[in-house]
Design goal:
The protein is mainly β. The protein has four domains: 155 residues, Jelly Rolls (Sandwich), CATH 2.60.120; 123 residues, Jelly Rolls (Sandwich), CATH 2.60.120; 112 residues, Sandwich (Jelly Rolls); 153 residues, Sandwich (Jelly Rolls), CATH 2.60.120. 13% of the residues lie in helices and 45% in strands. It is built from six helices and 33 strands. Strands 9, 10, 12, 15 and 17 form a five-stranded antiparallel beta sheet that branches. Strands 1-8-3-6 form a four-stranded antiparallel beta sheet, with helices on one face. Strands 2-7-4-5 form a four-stranded antiparallel beta sheet, with helices on one face. A hairpin with a 5-residue loop joins strand 29 and strand 30. The longest helix has 15 residues.
């Protein structure tokens, strides 16, 4: 019996916790939000156990389990004492099973907790005189889904402790229907079909807890464009969407503080990709849908209107929608919207133009459609038609930006796709102190992190030519997070950010074709040293980088920068030279916090 049990446990262990080689562990955090959500949830369970009279034992185990696989640990449990093991899974893990076997291979305790939680309890008795411990094996299996699992061990005297009723209440992911998510995906699908997009496979629907990640692989073809959208139901107030290429590099993201993220990508060659949806705030049902279409120059699809009245979602007041869009900006010091239009009609494929006054100072021109099925695009240009900014994301809202030293008349073109509808258009003026386009870009790029309690710890500026690079070394303290936002001035057309670990592996990047970018990284139980690189691919001008940090305990540890040892060149002051590195920083260039 012992031999059979040992062989079975070895088979389970060998099959289980490691992810496939194409998905390195460094790029598969269980909860890539600003804090380790799984650790926070499991911490609540541990505190409840302590409050009920159970003693937390030293050591906490964490592993990764694939669906229909598992892991087993040998244990020596004290005779005459009671042992309780409490487990909680993250990621897409939806059904976790714990079983405790004794040394003879017989079941000593079986888990009775539903969903991603688990608990087993046993009070070993002596089999021989003077025995102080007995051998056991704890087996964990993922019956549905996959993800990280945390396990804690507690001891108690027989008869002590208040029991386990209600222990997991409010910690497990709620069982919620997918109806609302499916309706939201259907609305977006209708709008995208009008632009020639058709679904690529079936939508991915899952129930998630805060901090969980839903991943779906994709095979994308050259010569086509793809849109990935994420939607969530009741209980989830903020979800994010990211797109990774086959090497694990993040090439697009939507980190807006809302529950309607979308990404668009047109690959140059056939390749494998991965879409990740991050549940940042709340718990509930989420869905991911991917649609594809020929590149615009190859597409002959004319955008039709809605087919039937039943297809139409609820229509609202676009000025109210725009007010909701502007509320976070107003909360950060921007002006209330000055409306150019409150209810202008637009049909699919139509282009309408408006004159707007910008300056003195900076402003955001924001648009919002009356119907979620309307895809609204904005193009901002000077009277001579030189384009200043554009927003062509697949959404019913859009925004463009401009700054002028004196009041100037600019022209904004509004284009609609999908459904007939109306739109509101307004100017939102930037607060005092934001006087350049670069400052507007940096404020908006860093705002998603600032609203999540990240605080600024460092800021650098550097003039860069095409392919110019700014390098730094950051130290992320244990159990904390760092975010980096970068933005260029009017001459910068494309700036990208990269974070590499001590082994020079790329762990985060933002390489979209925009003059601004943001990346973030969280450290687990040990500090992490990262090499930061900001690269300007198109244009010429000044790039400003800001580092923000978040610590779950509000500690004093902060990311630190490395200073280049290069001497200033002629016409360059010493401070400016110290902010640009010609070569990657040496390991001893890192300053500890």
């Amino acid at each position: 019996m012992r031999v059979a049990l040992a062989l079975a446990l070895i088979a389970v262990t060998c099959a289980g916790p490691e992810a496939p080689p194409s998905r390195p562990a460094a790029r598969l955090p269980d909860a890539p939000g600003p804090l380790d959500a799984l650790n926070r949830r499991h911490g609540r369970l541990r505190q409840r156990m302590r409050n009920r009279g159970y003693v937390d034992q030293t050591g906490l185990s964490r592993t990764f389990i694939l669906e229909d696989r598992g892991v087993a640990w040998p244990l020596d449990l004290s005779v005459g004492k009671c042992s309780t093991f409490v487990a909680l899974g993250g990621g897409s893990l939806r059904q976790l099973e714990l079983t405790l076997y004794d040394g003879e291979g017989d079941e000593a305790a079986t888990d009775s907790v539903e969903q991603e939680g688990g608990l087993v309890h046993v009070c070993p008795q002596a089999e021989a005189r003077r025995a102080v411990t007995r051998p056991y094996y704890l087996q964990l299996r993922a019956l549905e889904g996959e993800g990280a699992v945390m396990v804690a061990h507690f001891r108690s005297e027989p008869g002590e402790g208040e029991g386990f009723d209600g222990l997991f209440e409010g910690v497990l992911a709620p069982r919620v229907p997918f109806r609302d998510v499916e309706e939201l995906l259907a609305r977006s699908r209708t709008a995208l079909r009008a632009r020639g997009f058709t679904p690529v496979g079936e939508p991915v629907l899952q129930r998630v807890s805060e901090g969980a990640v839903v991943r779906t692989p994709l095979s994308l073809e050259a010569g086509r464009c793809y849109v990935a959208i994420g939607r969530s139901g009741e209980g989830l107030g903020d979800i994010d969407l990211s797109l990774f290429d086959s090497s694990g590099v993040e090439i697009a993201r939507d980190l807006a503080a809302d529950a309607e993220p979308s990404l668009e990508h047109c690959p140059d060659q056939d390749a494998r990709y991965r879409v990740e949806l991050h549940a940042f705030q709340g718990a509930g049902a989420v869905g991911i849908m991917v649609l594809g279409a020929p590149r615009p120059e190859e597409s002959a699809v004319e955008p039709p209107g809605p087919s039937t009245a039943e297809d139409l979602p609820a229509v609202g007041d676009p000025s109210v929608t725009l007010g909701v869009l502007a509320a976070p900006l107003v909360g950060r010091g921007f002006s209330a919207p000055v409306f150019i239009s409150r209810d202008a009609a637009i049909v699919p494929g139509e282009v309408r133009t408006h004159d707007v006054v910008v300056g003195p100072g900076c402003a955001i021109i924001a648009g919002a459609a009356s119907d979620p099925g309307v895809d609204l695009d904005l193009y901002l240009a000077e009277p001579n038609r030189r384009e200043i900014d554009r927003d062509t994301a697949v959404q019913s809202t859009a925004r463009v930006r401009a700054c002028r030293a004196q009041a100037d008349v600019l022209r904004v073109a509004v284009k609609g796709y999908g459904r007939d509808g109306t739109y509101a258009l307004a100017v939102i003026r930037a607060p005092a102190g934001i006087d350049t386009l670069q400052q507007v870009r940096l404020e908006e790029t860093s705002a998603p992190y600032r609203t999540r309690d990240y605080t600024e710890r460092a800021r650098w500026r550097a003039p860069l030519e095409r392919s110019g690079r700014l390098r730094r070394v950051l130290t992320v303290p244990a159990r904390s997070c760092v975010a980096v936002a970068a933005a260029g001035d009017e001459g910068v057309e494309d700036v990208d950010l990269f974070l590499r670990d001590a082994a020079d592996e790329l762990v985060a990047s933002e390489t979209g074709p925009a003059p601004h970018a943001a990346v973030s990284r969280c450290a687990d139980e040990a500090p992490e040293t990262l090499a930061l690189e900001a690269v300007m691919y198109r244009g010429r001008g000044t790039v400003e980088v800001v580092v923000l940090a978040l610590s779950p305990e509000g500690g004093a540890e902060v990311p630190t920068e490395s200073r280049s040892r290069r001497s200033p060149t002629e016409g360059e002051d010493e401070d400016a030279a110290a902010e640009i590195e010609d070569e990657p920083p040496a390991p001893d260039d890192t300053a500890e916090p």
